[in-house]
Structures
1.
Amino acid sequence: EAWARKAAAESNSAVYLDIENDLDIDDELIGVSTNIADITSIHKTVIDKGISQMVHIDRLIVPSKNKVQLKPKGIHIMLMKLKRSLKSGEEFEVSLNFKNAGLKNCKVVVK
């Protein structure tokens, strides 16, 4: 199940989920979008000299017949400048754009 952290309007949140690739070839997540944030992008958390930072990544490779976990303190979908607050129990959609599988819509639950 895809989920996001609750957050106030104008602030940031993140979406976490497992992405499965059932194709016989590797695929790439090349874009993400949603109507609840001004900016939506793929990020990963890196630790440099003991300091945790979020870094934008252009694409995420999902190996053939495998899955990639998007989780806290790892790879995630960043939602920046939320257009409204996200409250526990609410749902919204995120569109995931894959190089090979195309556009996939995903329901996200706020926790």
Note: The beta strands are 2-4, 13-21, 27-33, 37-48, 51-56, 60-62, 66-70, 75-82, 91-98, 102-110.
2.
Amino acid sequence: FKKIREATCAATEMCTAAVTNCIIHAYEGQVQKIEIFCRREGQKLWVDVIDKGVGIRDVAKAMEPLFTTKPEKDRSGMGFTFMEAFMDEVTVESQVGYGTVVHMKKTIGR
């Protein structure tokens, strides 16, 4: 029981870090509305973070290390690549003028 609980706790902390990262990036992009949808099926947790912002102009590069849309003085280099370290899968969909959806999947409860 203890090992399962520790694994679940670690997975929860990783998911929290990834979702928080999405929210911070949306907030910094002056997004007015952020929605978070979660679902669990067995040992899989899916989280979608949806913002109704300006979108990412070059979404094909969004998962590259050091990619950012921020001005040079505000760059941290963490971005979406940071989330890949915590989640099993991360994909980004975005349309300029409509917003961005970040899909994440994590196996929990191992």
Note: The CA atoms of residues 23 and 34 lie 7 Å apart.
